[in-house]
Please model this.
Amino acid sequence: MSQIVVLKAEELKKLTVSAFLNTGFNIADSETTAELLITTELMGISTHGVHRVEQYIKRIRAGVVPAVPQIKEYDKAASVAIIDGGGGQGQVVAARALEISINKAIKTGLGFVSVRNSNHLGAMAPYGFAATIAGLILISGTTASPSMVPHGGRDLLLGNNPVGFAAPCKGNAPFILDIALSIAARGKMRALRDTGRAMPAGWALDRDGNPTTNPQAGLEGFIQFIGGHKGYGLALAVEILSGILSGGRFLDDVGDMWAAREPQGVSHFFLAINPSTIIEREEFDHRMRVFVEKIKTCAPYNKEGEILLPGEIEFRTMEERRLDGIPISNELVKRIEDLAKL
Model:
């Protein structure tokens, strides 16, 4: 079993930047991609961090993802834009879309950007975190390769479309919700498979529709939505806000990021909201503090327990890892080092 080593964030970022530079990425896009991946690692979301670098680079070298994408912006209104990602790396395209969304929200109060022709963008949380640093609320989502069936169906038509919600909480950890719409994310199932562990019952059905605790059988079968038809409905909403509105691919037209055959054609959406346009900033900050205090002072079910808000664990983990470093398998570090040396 691979040993765990601890690297400082800057050291791991430097390796990651070098790995992408070796694919033909320019320095800005390499920095953008690495920064989002390292922020994800700092938050403790390792399933969507540098673990993905090898597959990303495999697709770039196969010519499926262009190293220099032609990203096009179509300004539709003062608060609305559509982005064509040119088939580029998801983090590069999404970061550009987020920047436009934030700028529009600062100027007009709202910034909605729907994105087409992109690829896997990683976790949603780092984008939400960036918006809160700018003092904004962010609602976001992305389509994904088909892995789930319509509620009551058998055909793989929908991706496990993640949604995000983030809000600044002055004086406290930012509120950051980042959830896939399955009971468990595919990345977690892959992690269990790769370490030879069983998954909890209820996460997925096998290809014959039978309950299974075998992660590989679940990945090949039917992953289950959170809340049944409720999670299914949210997944469809993401398809509408991203794939439909952007003019991009949707449902089972989205490609597989684990294949090296064709661009995914993933779609995203980002809706940034400027609270200062709606109420005074001081009033918003005060109300958020009261909101957080009421939740945090709720009596826990267990005396030793603590009531947490979404993003609180990730924020604490981020602060700890900025000081102490990021734990990562030595084997993965060596593979990234090899990519950085080529």
Notes: The mean pLDDT is 95.
